[in-house]
From TrEMBL:
<feature type="domain" description="Mandelate racemase/muconate lactonizing enzyme C-terminal">
    <location>
        <begin position="128"/>
        <end position="257"/>
    </location>
</feature>
<dbReference type="InterPro" id="IPR036849">
    <property type="entry name" value="Enolase-like_C_sf"/>
</dbReference>
<protein>
    <submittedName>
        <fullName>Mannonate dehydratase</fullName>
    </submittedName>
</protein>
<dbReference type="Pfam" id="PF02746">
    <property type="entry name" value="MR_MLE_N"/>
</dbReference>
<dbReference type="InterPro" id="IPR018110">
    <property type="entry name" value="Mandel_Rmase/mucon_lact_enz_CS"/>
</dbReference>
<dbReference type="InterPro" id="IPR034589">
    <property type="entry name" value="D-mannonate_dehydratase-like"/>
</dbReference>
<dbReference type="InterPro" id="IPR029017">
    <property type="entry name" value="Enolase-like_N"/>
</dbReference>
<dbReference type="GO" id="GO:0000287">
    <property type="term" value="F:magnesium ion binding"/>
</dbReference>
<dbReference type="InterPro" id="IPR013342">
    <property type="entry name" value="Mandelate_racemase_C"/>
</dbReference>
<dbReference type="GO" id="GO:0009063">
    <property type="term" value="P:amino acid catabolic process"/>
</dbReference>
<dbReference type="InterPro" id="IPR034593">
    <property type="entry name" value="DgoD-like"/>
</dbReference>
<dbReference type="Pfam" id="PF13378">
    <property type="entry name" value="MR_MLE_C"/>
</dbReference>
<dbReference type="GO" id="GO:0016052">
    <property type="term" value="P:carbohydrate catabolic process"/>
</dbReference>
<dbReference type="GO" id="GO:0008927">
    <property type="term" value="F:mannonate dehydratase activity"/>
</dbReference>
<dbReference type="InterPro" id="IPR013341">
    <property type="entry name" value="Mandelate_racemase_N_dom"/>
</dbReference>
<dbReference type="InterPro" id="IPR029065">
    <property type="entry name" value="Enolase_C-like"/>
</dbReference>
Length: 402
């Protein structure tokens, strides 16, 4: 079974997506997500210019060997652009293997470990009243877990808070827009928001919050401690995690669980966090962490240390990534939660898929492979539009993490 064609498809049905489609000599096709938000064309070029020429004629059944060929063969290893490109190839090859076997991919990963994939939705609003209404809306839709982001008084904009509630799109301009941040205002306001949400919705709803890399370790320790009475399921990205040692300091101060990993490219970004049990959930994804093959390796390491999965699933991860994620989520023993931000109707039409939401759970497609495709004719109607993520500054103008 040889690869005879490999197409890199860039499309913008409301937002940009990069997709790799592989075709084999026996007529099977496979798709892989290659979207790296704000840096899409770098991955498209990496694939078109450097990877596709090496794929033609390659045995499509050799997933592990192809992964290592692309990882070790590039000499440079790691990095988000490389790992996203490898992920696309890997995901497409798993799709093909599932179709060749006549099974959904989760069967090839060991079969089901659970009946459904618990997902969390995004309740966000400028005001606390608005937040309460949004949480209620998600509870009414059947969600068992909700991420809460509130506007911070005194700040013009806040991460995670948007006008269009179901689809948060931070990559909003060709040249990055600029936001202003105050840790003092944020830390003063946030615990009170969660006190009201917990009071209104009771103890059973899973509540989550994304700090988006904005605090120092000791500030994160303080936030975690102040949130303990409200029993969060996790505090996400409390501090940038390049310095993995820094998580020890947070751990010394709080029992609020910690989730990190959406910007990780592979196992070496989280090895210490996992093996020293400095996090509770690893949020790496199929598309940015080397595909199904490599993410499975991360999750298996995490399982040894009682760390559960909590994969990133924002709108910039395409339905191809979501389809692949759900096969892993349903199969691994140490699944925790899956983020699920809905895609627009335009995006869903470009990527017809078989996964579906019911009663707070997502269910992977049951057809052979991943159960997702790209409509290339429709995709061609949505040309690429430059769109970058914002930058963030402190009130004195100092550049801060966005
Ligand atoms: O900012 O996906 O948990 N979700 C997030 C996202 C990220 C975007 C970046 O591309 O933090 O909203
Ligand atoms: Co996040």
């Amino acid at each position: 079974m040889k690869i005879v064609d490999a197409r890199v498809i860039v499309t913008c049905p409301g937002r940009n997506f990069v997709t790799l489609k592989l075709v084999t000599d026996d007529g099977l096709t496979g798709v892989g997500d290659a979207t790296l938000n704000g840096r899409e064309l770098a991955v498209a070029s990496y694939l078109r210019d450097h990877v596709v020429p090496t794929l033609i004629g390659r045995d499509a059944s050799r997933i592990e060997d192809t992964w290592n060929y692309l990882y070790k063969g590039a000499y440079w290893r790691r990095g988000p652009v490389t790992m996203t490109a490898i992920a696309a190839v890997d995901t497409a090859l798993w799709d093909i293997k599932g179709k060749a076997a006549g099974m959904p991919v989760y069967q090839l990963l060991g079969g089901r470990s659970r009946e459904g994939v618990t997902v969390y939705g995004h309740a966000n609003a400028e005001t606390v009243e608005g937040v309460l209404a949004e949480v209620a809306r998600y509870v009414d839709l059947g969600y068992k877990a909700v991420r809460v982001q509130a506007g911070v008084p005194g700040l013009a904009t806040t991460y995670g808070v948007s006008g269009d509630k179901m689809f948060y799109e931070p990559a909003d301009a060709a040249v990055p827009t600029e936001a202003v941040w105050s840790t003092e205002r944020y830390l003063a306001h946030t615990p009170g928001v969660f006190a009201q949400v917990r009071d209104e919705f009771g103890p059973n709803l899973k509540l989550l919050h994304d700090v988006h890399h904005r605090l120092t370790p000791i500030e994160a320790g303080r936030l975690g401690k102040s949130l303990e009475p409200h029993a969060l399921t996790w505090m996400e990205d409390p501090t940038p995690a390049e310095l993995q040692d820094s998580l020890r300091l947070i751990r010394q101060h709080t029992t609020t669980p910690i989730a990190i990993g959406e910007i990780f490219s592979g196992i070496w970004d989280c090895q210490q966090l996992i093996t020293e049990q400095l996090i509770d959930y690893i949020r790496a994804t199929v598309v940015h962490a080397g595909g199904i093959t490599h993410l499975r390796r991360i999750f298996d390491l995490a399982a040894l240390y009682q760390v559960r999965s909590g994969s990133h699933g924002a709108t910039d991860l395409s339905p191809v990534c979501m389809s692949a994620a759900l096969h892993l989520d349903v199969a691994i023993p140490n699944f925790g939660l899956q983020e699920y931000m809905r895609h627009t109707a335009e995006t869903d039409a470009v990527f017809p898929h078989g996964y579906h939401f019911a009663d707070g759970y997502l269910h992977p497609a049951e057809e052979p492979g991943l159960g997702v495709d790209i409509d290339e004719d429709l995709a061609a109607q949505y040309p690429y539009r430059p769109a970058a993520l914002p930058v963030n500054r402190l009130e004195d103008g100092t550049l801060h993490s966005w």
